[in-house]
Known about the structure:
CATH class of the domain at 3-159 and 230-245: Alpha Beta
Strand content: 5-15%
CATH topology of the domain at 3-159 and 230-245: Rossmann fold
Structural class: alpha/beta
CATH architecture of the domain at 3-159 and 230-245: 3-Layer(aba) Sandwich
Strand order of the largest sheet: 2-1-3-4
Number of helices: 7
Distance between the termini: 25 Å
Helix content: 25-40%
Largest sheet: 4 strands, parallel
CATH superfamily of the domain at 3-159 and 230-245: Creatininase
Amino acid sequence: MELSELAWPAVAALPKTTPIIFPIAALEQHGKHMPVFTDSLLCGEVIRRVKLTPVGARCLFAPMQWLGNSHHHLDFPGTLSASARVYLDLIKDLAHCFVSHGFTRIVFVNGHGGNIVPSQQALFELKQEHRNRRDLLLLSLTYWDACGGPPTIPGLTQKSMGHACEWETSMVLRIAPQLVVGDHTKVPEVPHGKGLAPGYRAWVMPDRSEPGHIGNPAAATPEKGEALFEFFSAGVASYLERVIAWDGSWDC
């Protein structure tokens, strides 16, 4: 169900356990060969496919929130970003609107790495404000994590998501190849690097990559893109089935 297509009485009539889905992504630089709208395009395609599955008819989907927390990309022109606190408050208010309308299951489906921490913090804070509500299920899921492990696709060279990488370039080649600039097979690999793992190192993109991408876009193909979309959309759909089946327990 599409929120943008309903009048308010139709929304009010929905069961209050209906999962409310907020797709969240970004508009930011994606290297020299990929469009700035990549994250929103890809998350939008994952959501489009999820809507075609049986679970899609049992959830209410809000429009894509394309503005993300992308300050770590601001060295590259074309990036639009909300600072962390502004972004956190924005998406927290989106969730709060539906909590105030009586709905009890809210899911952010995320398509941008920079949104992961703010979206989790937003829901963490909202839960503190409703700490006695045992019926309230507040969730954030990044679509490439939905299956709990990396995809097993023949020929795939990367084991994790990068940035304008083999995975993302493959998916854009699948749905909008005209937006890929030049010959992606000649784009040099930028390794993920160690980044002082297992600790967390704060970074901005020029710390890691001069051209703005991370990973191996030269290995991208539209066939890999289709397989990735199938894998990720199936993972998100399966997760939303779990949301619908939630029985109120922690171990679910």
